Amino acid sequence: MPELRHDPIQRRWVIIATERARRPSDFSIERELPGNGKQCPFCYGNEARTPPEIRAFRDIPSSDGPGWKVRVVSNKFPALRIEGEQERAAVGHYDRMNGIGAHEVIIETPQHDKDLPDLPIEDIAALMKMYRERIVDLQRDPRFRYIIIFRNHGAAAGASLAHPHSQVIATPVTPRTVAIELQSAREHFQVKERCIFCDIIVQEMQTHSRVVTADADYVTWCPYASRFPFEMAIAPRRHQHDFAAQDDAQLMKLARHLREVILRMRHALSDPPYNYLIHTAPAFHHHAKRPGYWQTIELDWHWHIEILPRLTKTAGFEWGTGFYINPTPPEDAARFLRDVQV
Amino acid sequence: MPELRHDPIQRRWVIIATERARRPSDFSIERELPGNGKQCPFCYGNEARTPPEIRAFRDIPSSDGPGWKVRVVSNKFPALRIEGEQERAAVGHYDRMNGIGAHEVIIETPQHDKDLPDLPIEDIAALMKMYRERIVDLQRDPRFRYIIIFRNHGAAAGASLAHPHSQVIATPVTPRTVAIELQSAREHFQVKERCIFCDIIVQEMQTHSRVVTADADYVTWCPYASRFPFEMAIAPRRHQHDFAAQDDAQLMKLARHLREVILRMRHALSDPPYNYLIHTAPAFHHHAKRPGYWQTIELDWHWHIEILPRLTKTAGFEWGTGFYINPTPPEDAARFLRDVQV
Fold it and tell me: C or N terminus of chain A, fewer CB within 10 Å?
C-alpha cells in the first residue's frame, strides 16, 4: 500500500510509492517508449495487458476487447490504491495516511500515432465526456477530496508511453496548490462578492495583449505571472465552477477550442513536450456541504485548464524558493501563439 | 529591467526576464556545454569574458586576472538587477515590482574538470567561506528580503556551464517556499518554545533509519516526506539560525561533511544531476527587527541545505497539485547512501 506522508515544515503531502520502490540502478536505465502495434499495451488487441476496464465508449458493448473509442483502466503502477478505509496516524512529529485514492489511465484513442489535435472533433469531444464521467463517478466517493485530470505529452513532460492518454488521480487530501487557489478565490469573493477568475478574464479580454484565442464560450490566455514560457490558461468565459457541469454542446465547443490551442502551441514551438491539467471544483463539496467554508464554492470557484509547455529546466533556485524565472514575457508568447497559422 | 509579477490566485511571485526574452526558436537549440580552456569563460585567462569581479580569494591581490581560487562575478544574464530603487505598482488586478535584486555566480575553482568533492578540503572550506561572505555582504542591503545560494550540477539539473559554479540570488520579496517554512517554524515555536528543526533532528537521530551520515556537528538525512528519490537534508546538530554565523572551524567541518555526502550520492547514483540550495535565515531580519513577528527568528529558525538529485521527471500531476510521487522510500534511499563505499 502506498503511503501519504506530511512534511511539517513545507506543509505538503507526498506520496511514497512503496510498491514500485526503485533502487539506485533503476534510474540510470533510459527506457524507450514502446512503438505501435504488438508492443503497446494501449493498442487494439492488447487489452489483456492492462488492468481490467473501468469504463469505455464502444459502439457494440463488450469488455476488455477491441472496438472501443475511449477506454479507462486502472494505472498498472498506481500511485494510490482504491481499496481500503482511510487510516491516519502520527509518526513522532510526522503525519502519515495510507495511500487511498484512485489512479486511472484514459486511453484517448485506439490510434497509436494520432495525437489529440489530429483526432476528429467528435473524438476529442468524446474524450471531454469521459473526463466529465470520471469526475462525476469519482466525486461520489466520500473518501476523495480532490480529482485531478492531467495529460503528459512527450518523454520530457513525464510521459512513459507514447500512445495518447490522459490520467486521473483522486486524492484523499486537498493538494496544496489547489488549496491555495481555493483560498484566494474565497477571500476575493468574501470582500467583493465576485469571482476572481471572472475578474481576471474581463481584464484579459480588455487588455487583449495576453489573449491567444477567444470564442463566444472559452478564452485562452498567457497568464500575467506565467511561470513558464508559453504557459496558457483556458477557462469558460461565463462563470462555471465545475468542469463536469458542462453539457454535451459545451463539451463539443471546448473540444474545438482545445484543439485549436494545442495546434497553435505545436506549430509555434515545434510540437513541444507539455503537460495540461484541469482544476475543477473540489470533490468534497459534493458530499460535505459544510456551512461557511464551502458554501460559496459554486460562486467563487471557476474551473480552468493549465497548459504548461516544458521548454526550460527547473533548477536550484526554483526548487529552493518556489520562485520562477520566465525568459519569455507572456505578452510576447501570446503574440507568437496568436500569429501562427493553424 | 526584469519585472516581478504576482499571481493573485497562486499567490506567487514570478520573475519575467524581459531583457533576455526568448523567442520560440530559441528553445529548440540544444546548447552544448563549452569545454575546457579557451572556450570556457570561467577558466583562467578568460576573466575578461565575465562581468567584472565582485570578490575573489587570491594569494596575490589583483582584479579580473588569473591567480584566484574562488571568484565571484555578476551573472552575465541576471534574473534581477542590482541598480535602482524598488518600485511597486498595481496593474489592474495584478501586482508588479521592478526586478531589483542581485544575481551572482561563484566560480568555485579554476579547475574546469574538478567537481566539488574532487577539491582539497581546504578549497571546499574556502567556497563555504565565500558563501558566508556573500550572505553577510548582501544582507546589509535593505532592499533585499532573502538571499539564496544554490548549485546546479549537470545539464538535466539546469546547469548551463560545466565549469563548477554556484549561484547567489537576492530577492526583494520573501519567496513563497521560504515563507511557508518560516511560518511553520514560528508557529511550532509559539506553542512549544522549541525549534521544529531541532525536534526533527532529535527524532531522526533516534529513529536512525533515514540518517545517511552524522558526525559531532552535522547530520544528513533523507527527509520523512521526501519529494524526490534520494533527496537529502543537511543541518547543524546544534541550533543555529544563520548559515553565515558559522566560524572558520565550523566551515571546515561542514566542507568535510558536504564532500562525504556528495561522494555518497555520486557513487550510489552514478554521478546524477542534482541541485543543492541553502535555506538560511531571512536577510531582512538584520535590517528590520520588527517586534513580534521576527523577534524569535534566532530561536525558531535553523539553517539547512537541501540536496535534490534529479532522477525523475516532474509531470502534470505534480505541477497541478504540488503533490509529489516519490518511488523510493527515504528509508531505502538512506540505506543505499549509507552502505556505499566512499
Answer: N
